[in-house]
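Need tokens for this chain, all 155 residues.
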Amino acid sequence: MTIWVDADGCPAVICEILYRAANRVPVPLCLVANRALRPPPSPWIRAIRVPGGFDVADTRIVDDVEPNDLVITADIPLAARVIERGAQALNPRGELYTRENIRERLALRNFMEELRNTGVSTGGPPPLGNSDRKAFAAQLDRYLAKMLRSGSHKV
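Here are the structure tokens for all 155 residues:
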């Protein structure tokens, strides 16, 4: 099991939670971005820099993700792609995307994009708050505990 991070858009506070979890469990953590990253030194944490371009980091994650891996992303199309590969996706606000809910999230995302394309101001998400951080950490802990119980996590 590996935790993949769509690091171009991942808030620093969420990365800090992930760094601690990677060392605590331990579990491989791989951050993918089109910019230089400086994760803390750890045998469990690595950063992959990809060239700039549309969906380059997403494609790298999808190409490398395996069943039971977890992808951290707010990008709903990326979440849908990794779910198709048998992995799961968790957004920085603590919502776990699954086969059961991803179609609805993708449809809503596409609808909102259509509205924006017609000039309707839909606003953006609110800033990441303390309750979001707690929800993310709790959902991450539940996922890791489930993987440990099931034997899917092998170091």
